[in-house]
Design brief:
InterPro entries: Split_barrel_FMN-bd (IPR012349), Stress-Dev_Protein (IPR052917), YdaG_split_barrel_FMN-bd (IPR038725)
Number of strands: 7
CATH class: Mainly Beta
Radius of gyration: 18 Å
CATH architecture: Roll
CATH superfamily: Electron Transport, Fmn-binding Protein, Chain A
Helix content: 25-40%
Strand content: 35-45%
Order of helices and strands: HEEEHEEHHEHE
Number of domains: 1
Pfam family, one: Pyrid_ox_like
Distance between the termini: 17 Å
Protein name: General stress protein
């Protein structure tokens, strides 16, 4: 599938609108025993194809990401959004200070200078979303799927390729 820059930007904008205002996401990583999901606070930056999370180096998720950077991030709000991507651990004091706030200090019982703090940058590759804003349409489409009737052209969900987002 070849994306044009306009299509890439449209896909990013759609995902941006769908996840805007959803503070907590479920980050799924690959552990020795299989997939593991945990709630994470998304950093308050405009989605541009990358998602940012703050964590500590002395956690299981850190070790999991060192061994396997493949992740999935799920958002639930007015819509459902599932983003598949690759995680990169970013050890940048400047970036951590940019995201830092008093809530982290209380929650993590540390300061932004703590060398144990690290950022997770998820480079989105694909996003699948289900728009749930129109309940009548949703019920109608689900009924059609359950009864095997043919659905109209309007789709409940879309998959968008974000792998070229932000590349020049």
């Amino acid at each position: 599938m070849t994306n044009t820059p306009a299509a890439d930007q449209d896909a990013i904008e759609t995902v941006r609108k769908l996840i805007k205002g959803i503070d907590i996401a479920m980050l799924t990583s690959v552990a020795e025993q299989g997939l593991v999901s945990r709630p994470m606070k998304t950093q308050e930056v405009e989605f541009d194809g990358d998602l940012w999370f703050l964590t500590m180096k002395d956690t299981e998720k850190y070790d999991e990401l060192i061994h396997n950077p493949n992740v999935n991030v799920t958002y639930v709000g007015k819509s459902y959004v599932s983003i598949r991507g690759t995680a990169e651990l970013v050890d940048s004091r400047e970036k951590i200070k940019e995201f830092w706030n008093a809530a982290y200090e209380k929650m993590l019982e540390t300061t932004s200078d703590d060398p144990n703090l690290i950022l997770i940058k998820v480079k989105a590759e694909t996003a699948e979303y289900w728009e749930m804003g129109n309940r009548t349409k949703l019920v109608k489409e689900l009924y059609k799927k359950l009864t095997g009737k043919k659905s109209d052209d309007s789709r409940l969900n879309e998959i968008v390729d974000l792998s070229h987002a932000g590349q020049n």
